[in-house]
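Below is the data:
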Amino acid sequence: MNEGNNHRTTNRILDVFEIIAQNSKDGLSFSDISKRLGIPKGSLSPLLSTLCSRRFLYLNKKNQKYYIGESLFSLGRCYVDDSNILNRIDEVMKQLSMEVQATSFLGVLSDNEVFYLIKKTAPVNLQVTAVPGYRLPAYCTGLGKALIAEKSMDEIKAMYPKGLEKITENTITDFDILEKQLEEIRETGFSYEKEESSPYIQCIACPIKMKGKTIAAVSVAFPIMIDSRREKERIKENLKSNAAIIERIINRDSDKWIYSD
């Protein structure tokens, strides 16, 4: 919760949206929302009632939990659908997924997390949690490592003052190990993740640059069972060529890129 010097009710509404979105799978009860955000129940009740009546939130009467509603989803889709530049990138991502027969992602850095903008799946039996609008700590994903590779370790440590927390049993929690990985990313142009954010999934990613600065990243996620060097090289070749296309699209219309600094 971050009320600062801004309008308290507005901040509370945004805090409610964020915490419910973060728990979109299981939902949150009235008491959970009140407790986690520190909002008195008397103040929270009319706020949730109004948001439900406007369909920004949905109350499941069976389990008495709140979920993101259709109105908020529609507004979120406008963020993507109204952007011609994202529509063009979407087509490239679709092509990438078909070429590698795996799930591909486009994401940007939002504070210290990866914010997923696009996800494209191929007709393979692979379940990856992340979807557009999803967030994960940057240090434990292929996308995130590509996004933070240019930062100094002092900057990265400032991003994670509590240290690198475990997301899975394989999440790297040592800043020294992360530093070595980031050095390799700067040298090779590719970042890697193996079961650090999702069990049984590995990922290869590369940065997207605008005027020499990393502003996004694209990745391919595939099962850990795929351990063939030849197959990984094929994925990297397709990833690199399609990332170059996306980079050209963004740089040609840089004034329309509004998704990162």
Observations:
- The CA atoms of residues 211 and 251 lie 7 Å apart.
